[in-house]
Amino acid sequence: MELDYDRLVALRKQSAAWRLLTAGNAALMLSFFNKVFVEQGARSVAGAELVERLDDELFALNERLGQGTFPRSAKVYLDDWSSPENGWLRKYYPPDTDEPHYDATSAVEKAISWIRSLEERSFVGTESRLNTIFDLLRQMTFGAETDPEARLAELTRRRHEIDREINRVQAGEVDVLDSAALRDRYQQVTSTAYGLLADFREVEANFRDLDRDLRRRIAVWDGAKGELLDEVLGSRESIAESDQGRTFQAFYDFLLAPSRQDELKSLLAEVEAMEAIDEPDPRMRRMPRDWLEAAERTQATVRQLSDQLRRFLDDQVRSEDRRVLELVRGIESRALALRDAPGVDLVAEIDAAAPAIALPMERPLYAPVAKAPIDSTGIQAGDGEFAADALFEAVYVDPARLMAAVHQVLGSRTQASLAETLREHPLEQGLAELVAYFALPADGFTTVFDDSRHEEITWIGDDDVQQVATVPVVTFARTSPGIAWATSQKEGR
Where are the alpha helices (DSSP H) in 369-427? Predict the structure, then answer.
């Protein structure tokens, strides 16, 4: 970013971090914010608790610096710090509660980070950062390389370096980092960890700004839903593809991997136990948990944006439904008014009352039928007695007998109904025989079904109880001369 005069003037007016650094009570705010939201890693503090903690801080400072140094109450200070004009604290109400909660903004993180950079350090390491620069440059050049031969050459070089390192270790030559190198790398680890945690606040703030802008546009939007969704999703995609968004996604993926968490905790414990790290940062041990809480809050903001989009779609659907009903009622009213008008034809034809939609993904996948294996080997005759009557109780309806009955009823006529046939040839085998009449083969006649009419067929069952079946009207119509049946009988067909 180019730091010219006009740009710096605009930043001084617009940047909340700059205003915080130049505020009259900057020392009070920075020390209190650092103690509550940075060192302790708090992401959301209830209003009553934060008022109490600030009140204790003001009391201690007034006792030491003199009464009247900070004359206002803790609540007045918090209201001033969270006002839209300052924007150093975010005051909000969580769901299902009427007590305000407070959280530091990304401006506080930036201001505290800059203040930390002003402190004189007894040790300033540069080797680890130089190695990091080389590693990043190698990753960039290797990641952008499209030539397979160049990639193979780089991988071969790495393999040779690893082989040489293995040979040196096997020979007893082990290079150990000295105390300065260890402190250098630990310093870079802590600064990077704090910087990444601060990125979560900025990503969360970006998503909140997007949610606020979405609510504003929904309130005044009168166009198509697709246009608004296209703009919103494009803005969300740009945030997700930003540096903070990619960092957040990478850390969220890390948080979902328990093995990586265990490895990080183990490495932190080993590093803090080294003699060279005489003053380990106490917050580094809590850093994985702080990352998890920050990621959860950022994800909650993303879910809030998704919920807002869903509510917008639901509201738009209901609004469109109401508009459709109004149009339908208007059409009905006009049709009723023109119904009796002479010379007006209100008849219209449509292909179907509703569209037929066939979704391929709704069709079930093919499931092969599992065939049970049948093993007929080793079957032996049994000696036990059993009743075999069930094997001989199967009902078999002879279709030839039924065809003969139909031809006899037809005689010289061209057609005869099923009811007429059954009056002359009553059912002998009940429902099975009735069903067989429906499936007789076309041999000199055809079976015609009239589904628009029904008739009742009665017969006496095995237990002398009258049975009744309601079936469509069935008619047997001759399709060949009457002599065809007699001829077929003489030929033994």
Answer: 399-410, 418-424
